[in-house]
Design brief:
The complex is a heterodimer of chains A (256) and B (307). Chain A is an all-alpha fold and 256 residues long. Chain A has one domain. Chain A contains 11 helices and 2 strands, in the order H-H-H-E-E-H-H-H-H-H-H-H-H. The two termini of chain A are 26 Å apart. The mean pLDDT of chain A is 90. Chain B has 307 residues and is of the alpha/beta class. Chain B contains 11 helices and 14 strands. In chain B, helix 3 packs across helix 4 and helix 8 packs across helix 11. The chains are: A mainly alpha (256), B alpha/beta (307).
Chain lengths: 256, 307
């Protein structure tokens, strides 16, 4: 065997994708249900007090943020939990002793998480279209953006999964960093509604740029220039992908 | 000259505060059945894990058929099938699917793997369990699955880390038969075990590893001959002083009508001793032979039992 182990890469990717589809009640349905609840509870109730933001009805305004939150939560937790699970359940040696390179192993995990992120993001988007007749200004760009964010957070999840030793450590990363950054990234508000100091802080939150970007592709509105969102997302994609591959290559916390 | 199946030279490895390997040298020829014997923490599993890419070495040479296990990892790993000591758990997929996945990691498509998977499920008695999840299998079944998994890509070298640990006697004998069959079919086998009997029965060559080094190597027969403590016990009457002279070529003690000989090969020496005693009109009441075992060799070399 020389060059790329394509069958190996395909098999591991297939395993990763089949794994989350086999437990769709845990991995696909919750995002749909919680998004529908957000739309009903936050959207319909708050819309009476905040009728519009940037000229868009409040329910529509929060939908791109919900798409993004589902996308990044699902993509990161897929690769993180899968990697940690394989470590803790003694499945990882099967992968590490196979003729698969660090790059191939990483790609398989990242693609697995990306597929879950895209599936969840697109399904929430469809919920928006069906429930509140959400218009999508640039459908292809929206799906492309969901894909890019899924890849970014799947890579981040893989990185965290490799470095974590326990479920507690993994949960800490997700609960104390990812979720707060998502909520503070402007899912439910425009950052122009915040005081100056809070706006400045939001500018260093990468998730803000992702929500801003998808809001632009879906609704055509934005708080910051869409190009900045694209640049930041591409930068984060490259950063986390390279970091995940380098950690895998080093064997840190995986090989002794 | 063809390269050996496995060649390890001056292999060193330390973990944070533990020195695991202090210069392991090991050569296993193609088609050989080799046993690595050692107490817990001797370095058996570390050696195997370095060879298969699970542990990073500090220094030394590790080669499979002449290729470096780090630089040419695709080649070397595709030659090896490993059954790990730890039994994995998988909640998601039936064992048949897991075998196809495993073949896939080695670059074998489902279509090509199918006959091999069917053969292994049949041969290892897993056919009825093909749709079961690993957690639904008994310990013995999980061991069979481990073996099936290590063979699914038809490797030339099979590494078995304590393959019969925790299995009942019947299954152990079944697995031994299967390992003999694999060896007969030309597979190179590297076995680590706590069961000395297993190594004595199966292996052509054993290496005794202790404190991170291989301290002795050889066939079980040669090792027991060289380092074992075999003996012959004879209960007799009619001792005469001439016997001291007649038996002077043997190492023996005589006390209370009992003769004890320390010999390398009891079967070979017994006839001669009996002949000499009869010649001097001794009356032999009983004869027993103490056979030496690898356990004695192990004790002799390491100063402790394998367990």
């Amino acid at each position: 065997m020389s060059g790329t182990n394509w069958i190996g890469l395909y098999t591991l990717t297939q395993r990763e994708v089949s794994r989350f589809f086999s437990v769709y009640r845990q991995t696909v349905l919750p995002g749909l249900i919680s998004s529908a609840l957000y739309i009903m509870i936050f959207g319909f109730t708050l819309e009476r007090r905040i009728s519009e933001i940037n000229g868009v009805p409040y329910t529509l305004f929060i939908l791109p943020g919900l798409i993004m939150m589902n996308t990044l939560t699902n993509s990161s937790s897929n690769s993180a939990s899968s990697m940690l699970q394989m470590k803790l359940l003694q499945q990882l040696p099967d992968i590490l002793t196979a003729p698969l390179s660090s790059l191939e192993i990483c790609l398989a995990y990242i693609i697995g998480g990306t597929v879950r992120g895209v599936v969840n993001g697109v399904l929430v988007m469809l919920v928006g279209v069906l429930l509140v007749d959400m218009p999508i200004e640039q459908p292809l760009a929206t799906i492309g953006f969901i894909f890019l964010v899924s890849w970014t957070f799947s890579s981040l999840g893989l990185l965290l999964g490799q470095l974590a030793d326990t479920w507690d450590q993994l949960a800490m990363m997700q609960n104390f960093f990812l979720t707060p950054l998502s909520f503070l990234g402007g899912i439910f508000y425009s950052i122009h509604m915040l005081p100056d100091w809070a706006q400045k802080i939001s500018m260093i939150n990468p998730i803000y740029y992702m929500i801003n970007g998808i809001r632009y592709t879906v609704l055509g509105i934005y708080d910051s220039p869409p190009l900045n969102s694209m640049i930041m997302t591409i930068f984060m994609t490259i950063l986390f992908t390279v970091a995940a591959i380098l950690v895998m290559k080093s064997g840190k916390k995986i090989k002794q | 000259m063809t390269s050996p199946a496995i060649h390890i030279s001056d292999l060193h490895k330390s973990y944070e505060d533990t020195i695991a390997l202090t210069g392991v040298n090991l050569t296993i020829e193609d088609g050989e059945f080799y046993g690595l014997l050692g107490p817990n923490g001797a370095g058996k599993t570390t050696t195997i894990h370095i060879l298969t890419g699970l542990v990073l070495k500090n220094s030394g040479v590790t080669e499979v058929y002449g290729k470096d296990t780090v630089k040419d990892f695709r080649f070397t790993r595709s030659q090896i099938g490993i059954a790990h000591q730890e039994l994995p758990i998988d909640w998601f997929f039936p064992i048949e699917k897991l075998l196809y996945f495993h073949a896939g990691y080695y670059g074998i498509s489902k279509r090509i793997a199918k006959p091999r998977v069917e053969e292994l499920l049949e041969r290892l008695g897993l056919k009825d369990k093909r749709t079961s999840r690993l957690r639904q299998l008994s310990g013995g079944m999980k061991r069979r699955y481990q073996l099936a998994k290590s063979l699914v890509h038809d490797p030339k070298i099979i590494i078995l880390d304590e393959p019969t640990a925790g299995v009942d006697v019947e299954l152990r004998h079944e697995l031994w038969d299967y390992l003999r069959e694999l060896h007969k079919n030309g597979k190179t086998i590297l076995l680590t075990t706590h069961y000395i009997e297993e190594a004595e029965l199966l292996c052509e060559k054993v290496g005794i590893i202790d404190k991170g080094q291989i301290i002795k190597e050889g066939s079980p027969r040669d090792l027991t001959k060289e380092l074992g403590k075999a003996g012959i016990n004879i209960h007799m009457t009619g001792w005469c002083d001439e016997l001291n002279e007649a038996l002077s070529s043997f190492s023996f003690t005589y006390d209370d009508n009992r003769l004890h000989f320390t010999v390398k090969e009891p079967e070979a020496d017994m006839a001669r001793i009996i002949q000499l005693l009869s010649h001097h009109n001794c009356h032999i009441l009983s004869v027993s032979a103490e056979k030496s075992s690898l356990e004695d060799v192990f004790l002799h070399l390491t100063g402790k039992g394998i367990n």
